[in-house]
Amino acid sequence: GVTQATPGGTATGAAPGTYEPGIEDYKVLKNTCPPTGTIAGTSYAKCGSNWWSYDTPATITSKMAWAKQQSLGGAFFWDFTGDTANGELVTAINSGLG
Known about the structure:
The protein is an alpha+beta fold. It is built from three helices and three strands; from the N terminus they run H-E-E-E-H-H.
């Protein structure tokens, strides 16, 4: 329910997701709704009347660089199921912190 492609618009509700409204895996979004921009370190895209924001390997790499610059001890994520079969996101975490 969005009409604006850039962040800051309004919506009539959450986009339909695999698990529940507003929740979708990176492995799905990267192909069905590839990012068209980045704001505040997170990718976003408008596809049809749906708007998504999500991390990509590039945004994760920049976040890991920031974590290292701040001398933080590491990073975490909830689970592997939303990543691609070859682990694009977890690889970006590992490479970025390495």
